[in-house]
Structures are given as structure tokens and as C-alpha cells.
Amino acid sequence: MDSIESAADVRYTDEKGLAEALRGADALFVYDFLSGAVPAAWHAADRIRWVHIASAGVDPVMFPELRDSEVILTNSRGVFDSSIAEYVLGVVIAFAKDLSRSLDLQRERRWQHRESERVAGRRALVVGTGPIGRAIARLLRAAGMPVSGMGRRARDDDPDFGTVYASADLVRVLPEFDYVIAVAPLTEQTKGLFDGAAFAAMKPTARFVNVGRGELVVTSDLVQALRDGRIAGAALDVFETEPLPSDHPLWTLPNVLVSPHMSGDFAGWRNTLVEVFADNFERWQTDLPLRNVVDKQLGYVPSGH
């Protein structure tokens, strides 16, 4: 932040002091991207022209007053693409090679020979065709998996996915896939997208991976689908309630991998997020177009921006 401090009056604050810090401020850097404090303090934002959030998802700041204002909203798209893709490839391999069972047997000092699955040839559906979804598609293709995408509109000539299905066709196409990866932004259209009907449509041998938002999933429906064997497993990095309560059934289901919202968090990620903001701040000061401008009606950065 040194370059920014030399060019502007910077006020650092926590949630309690946010309203006071907003008065007279021209820009807001939401570094704590999990905080829900901005809507409650927004009444004090008397001259804000630009809000930047240190995450790819913008749902914590998509409240009506900001969405309907002239304030520019930018995000940190691009920071987490590769690391989240690596996480997804890792859990796919972990499922296919039964690594969690191998660790259990190792702790028990039991030599139990088993056969495992091939990764190559297993079909994957990536729900969300932004930069993170594309990075996932490229890595899974490199591992020999045919990959399709799902987005707002259908098309057959996508450079990373080939075929992209429309979100409205989710239940219809789910039976074709062995791995279903959720990475879509949270919008009114995607909230609760994966419900009982979606899980019932999946193959009983299919695995579900969520690296998008917890609210994309009706969690109770997912738990029931796992308990009933309607799907074979799930790798979950995000949840409706975080931290995941210690008594939640997802902790103990044998076919579930739980990680604490860390799939994108590589060593040094916090500094990288500040560097993204600093770059955009320099552009803002010199009247250059800002990077990663969010379409506030869509809830994400459109392709090509």
C-alpha cells in the first residue's frame, strides 16, 4: 500500500469504524471480502465513486443501493484461477485413486490392495464459464478428461469447453457427467441451483465439487443425496454457513472431502490482492480504464472486460 499512501489519504478501519471512514472518501477497498459490513455502513458513503473488492465473487457488496448507483465496482478476477483449478484437479485425482481410504488404511497399518479408477475419459461439467472455470477446464483436459461448460447461453464453439450448455438445461444434461464442478458466481439465478432435483439427475457414480459459493447448493438436499447414495461423493470448499459448524453431518460423511474455503489461497495471495488494487488505483488516478469492471446487473465481470 506504500504507493497508494503516498498519493492519497488512506483510512484503515475494521467493521465497527467503517461508516465513519466512509464519510468523504472517494474509493473503498473491501479487503475483508467475507465481511457483510458494507451495506450497513453505506449510508455514510457521501462521495464514493469506486469500490474494489479483494475477491472474484462480489455478492457481499451487491446490495441494492450500490447496484443501482453510478459507483464503479471492480473485483480481483484472475488472482485465484490457477490455484483453484489445481485444487479441482487434486480432488478429482483423490476421488479416482481413493486416496482418503489409503490414508485411513495407512494409519491402521493395513495392507489392503484395491483397484482404482482412471481419470482419463471421465466426463466433467464445469458450471461457470468465467476465468476460473476456464482454468479448471484446461487442467482437466490436460489430464485426459472431456470437459463441457454451463453458462447463461448455449454454444458449440467455445475455445476452452467446446460445448457450453445453458443453465436452464442443467437437470437435463447432468446424467451425462462423472464430475460436476460448481464455480458459478452467486446471483439470483444461481442461488440454490444444485438442489434435490439436480442431485437426483446425476449419475450414482458421479462426484460433486463446489469451489464457487456455498449458496449455490441446497445443503440439506446434498446431505440427503450423499446419505442415500444418489451421488458417489462431494468435495466442498465453500458452505452456506462458514465456518462449517462442528456438528454438521458433512464433517463425518465418508464420501465427502471438506476444506475451509482455501482452494484458491496460495502462499502470497494476500499481497497479490493488494497489488491488483494498487494497479487499478494507479489507473483510476490517471483516468485509464479500470480492470475487472463488474456489470452490477449481472453480478460479475463480462467476458472480454
UniProtKB/TrEMBL annotation:
Pfam families: 2-Hacid_dh (PF00389), 2-Hacid_dh_C (PF02826). Signal peptide: none annotated. InterPro entries: D-isomer_2_OHA_DH_cat_dom, D-isomer_DH_CS, D-isomer_DH_NAD-bd, NAD(P)-bd_dom_sf. The keyword NAD applies. GO terms for molecular function: NAD binding; oxidoreductase activity, acting on the CH-OH group of donors, NAD or NADP as acceptor. It comes from the Bacteria. Residues 90-263 form the D-isomer specific 2-hydroxyacid dehydrogenase NAD-binding domain. Belongs to the D-isomer specific 2-hydroxyacid dehydrogenase family. This is D-2-hydroxyacid dehydrogenase. It comes from Amycolatopsis pithecellobii.
